[in-house]
Amino acid sequence: MHVSIVGSGYVGTTVAACFADMGHEVVNVDIDEDIVDAINAGESPIHEPGLAPLIDEHAGSRLRATTDYGEIVDTDLTMLCLPTPQHEDGSLDLGPMRAASESLGEALADADDAATGAHEDANPGTDSHLVVVKSTVLPGTTEDVVGPLVAEAGGMTVGDDLDLAMNPEFLRMGTAVSDFLDPDKVVVGATSEDAAATLRALYAPILDQDGTEYVETDVRSAELIKYANNAFLASKVSLVNELGNIAKSYGADAYEVLDAVGLDDRISERFMRSGLGWGGSCFPKDVNALRAGARDQGYEPGLLDAVVAVNDGQPDRLVSLLANHVDIEGARITVLGLSFKPHTDDIRKSRSLLVIDRLRERGVDVVAHDPVAIENVREYYAERNGGSADSATDVETGSLTFEESVAEALAGVDGAVLATDWPEYDDLPVETMNQRILVDGRRIDVDRDRLDAYDGLTW
Ligand SMILES: NC(=O)c1ccc[n+]([C@@H]2O[C@H](COP(=O)([O-])OP(=O)(O)OC[C@H]3O[C@@H](n4cnc5c(N)ncnc54)[C@H](O)[C@@H]3O)[C@@H](O)[C@H]2O)c1
Ligand SMILES: O=c1ccn([C@@H]2O[C@H](COP(=O)(O)OP(=O)(O)O[C@H]3O[C@H](CO)[C@@H](O)[C@H](O)[C@H]3O)[C@@H](O)[C@H]2O)c(=O)[nH]1
């Protein structure tokens, strides 16, 4: 099939490369020329295991990228993989979805004009264009916002020459390629049988796999399934963290406790790791969007409010724990791990950034290390501080510097906190630390005998 994917970020790039690998002809459309150039040069614009080889293999043949929306016209369907960030109040920001929907409609209208009156679509057997929302959006967005915007800009009619579907994505950063190619489930909400059939054909190469469920439902349910999934997982981690905080207060070990609890197959042992809590580009904004959406619907989501409150408290607990071991005012402390989880350079809503802020507010000079995310963090602080990446000039707070090697990051420091459980931290070169103190927010596999003091957030 010929597939166009609008938005080539973490999801759009992964999905495009995977569809190309499945045998489809794919074009990525993005407004960011650097991303487009990288893909066309056969390079991955992001750090994601397994992605670079796929782009290298398919770029220039089954995979292309462009800034030109006109290229969607000759494709069987257009999948929207645009950001759906949150407003300051936590509610869903549909700005990028609206802008892209209008651009898409305009491109389809231009093609219609060019095709001497009748819109020629590549979709075999139909003369309508299928728009599939893959971004995470609240119920109603596909049918009440995206559809009407594309239709108006394109001079089209939903159900006639415009078809809609919603196909949420469940991949995780760090394992995105394998999650996409070997998913637990594919969820599709389509507005017509033609749209449903096109999506079945699109996913056919992976549907024969054992263990992949194909769920067909209505569009609003498909939209809500994505939020319910993330809300459930975020709640599980917050519950585990609450139980972990209680375990520590009793001098019990949360990992021993929860490993045993997870043996109950109604609960499962997965997603039971207590510690610094959840970050990333999805859980924080999606839980907030669902809370705001529920309130709009007249429902008070008290449980989800508490889920966020527990999560928000964990970075402060980590810093308090460190203060039990180190006189932190004026201390030099290493923060190990900056990405929101291992095996990705994604730092969006990373707990590490909150820990760094809390430490610096208390006058700590922070030395930060990460195997792949340092550049992104430099850019983040440069943007926040109006140009100064290391911001060592900040007089109110401690400084922030970056070290490329773990050994250099630990040399001469008064203690370290572990924020992201990269495997690189399993065998820490602690000998050169001024004080061999480690406060662990993720329960890594470290040789505690080589440390003067080791403390865990919930154990
Ligand atoms: N990151 C994940 O792990 C993940 C997993 C599942 C679902 N999702 C959802 O998928 C969606 C995309 O997430 P992401 O992490 O890939 O976002 P992202 O920010 O990494 O990428 C979005 C891309 O869209 C491009 N873009 C913005 N406006 C555009 C426009 N008008 N036209 C064309 N391109 C435009 C940006 O340049 C960027 O490359 C979100 O709704 C997210 O919640 C994300
Ligand atoms: O037992 C656990 C598991 C996870 N986390 C934290 O939870 C966050 C999210 O982790 P994970 O779910 O592995 O990563 P994401 O890439 O954010 O993936 C989530 O968000 C995506 C975007 O919506 C969804 O597609 C995925 O299904 C969903 O797992 C990270 O900060 C983890 O450190 C824990 O603290 N303890």
Radius of gyration: 24 Å
Q: How would you classify the quaternary structure?
A: single chain
CATH superfamily of the largest domain: NAD(P)-binding Rossmann-like Domain
**What is the structural class?**
alpha/beta
Average pLDDT score: 94
Find the CATH topology of the largest domain: Rossmann fold
- Please bin the fraction of helical residues: 40-55%
Order of helices and strands: EHEHHEEHEHEHEHEHHHHEHEHEHEEE
Gross geometry: globular
| Number of domain modules | 2
Strand content: 5-15%
- For the record, the CATH class of the largest domain is Alpha Beta
Bound molecules: nicotinamide-adenine-dinucleotide, uridine-5'-diphosphate-glucose
CATH architecture identity of the largest domain: 3-Layer(aba) Sandwich
Main beta sheet: strand number and arrangement?
8 strands, mixed
Number of strands: 14
Which ranges are low-confidence, i.e. pLDDT below 50, for 5 or more consecutive residues?
116-125
Any overview of this molecule?
By secondary structure, the protein is of the alpha/beta class. The chain folds into 2 domains: 2-217, NAD(P)-binding Rossmann-like Domain (Rossmann fold, 3-Layer(aba) Sandwich), CATH 3.40.50; 234-459, 3-Layer(aba) Sandwich (Rossmann fold). It is built from 14 helices and 14 strands. The chain has helices spanning 10-21, 33-40, 51-58, 95-114, 141-154, 176-181, 193-207, 219-250, 254-261, 283-296, 302-325, 351-361, 374-384, 406-410, and strands at residues 2-6, 25-29, 63-66, 77-80, 129-133, 162-166, 185-190, 213-217, 332-336, 365-369, 400-402, 415-418, 437-440, 453-456. The strands form 2 sheets. It has an 8-stranded mixed beta sheet with strand order 3-2-1-4-5-6-7-8, with helices on both faces. A 6-stranded parallel beta sheet has the order 11-10-9-12-13-14. Helix 1 crosses helix 3. The protein starts with a strand and ends with a strand. The structure holds nicotinamide-adenine-dinucleotide and uridine-5'-diphosphate-glucose. The active site is at 282 (nucleophile). Pfam families: UDPG_MGDP_dh, UDPG_MGDP_dh_C, UDPG_MGDP_dh_N. Its EC number is 1.1.1.22.
